[in-house]
Write a structure and sequence with these properties.
The chain has no helices and eleven strands. By secondary structure, the chain is an all-beta fold. Strand 7 and strand 8 form a beta hairpin. It starts with a strand and ends with a strand. The mean pLDDT is about 95.
Length: about 130
């Protein structure tokens, strides 16, 4: 079982930056693919980025490309989301997710993950 805990959210002005962190408990962190999703009230949770367990390949949603960077530190059991050039439309609750072995398919979808954190709120003011 993996427990995920996000941190680093807050209030920032448009154009600013935030770095979200997600600390994971449990073993074999390096064998997990990790994703970030976000959700605003009344809308579906949407994919932001993932970093794979094998080789650390990354993939981003269009809204994140060029502005957000996902990374991981296996020694610290932590995944990060560096968010730059933030926009008011980035305001959402951001969730960390993990997919452990045996791995699922479809890491851009909610169903690609079997562990979720409680989320951290990001608010971008104009």
């Amino acid at each position: 079982q993996v427990h995920l805990e996000e941190s680093g959210g807050g209030l920032v002005q448009a154009g600013g930056s935030l770095r979200l962190s997600c600390a994971a408990s449990g073993r074999s962190f390096s064998s997990y693919t990790l994703g970030w999703f976000r959700q605003v009230p009344g809308k579906e949770r949407e994919f932001v980025a993932y970093i794979s367990w094998k080789g650390g390949s990354t993939y981003y949603a269009d809204v994140a490309k060029g502005r957000f960077t996902i990374s991981r530190d296996n020694a610290k059991n932590t995944v990060y989301l560096q968010m730059n050039s933030l926009k008011p439309e980035d305001t959402a609750r951001y969730y960390c997710a993990a997919d452990g072995p045996p791995h699922r398919v479809g890491w851009t979808a909610l169903g690609g993950y079997d562990h979720w954190g409680q989320g951290t709120q990001v608010t971008v003011s104009s």
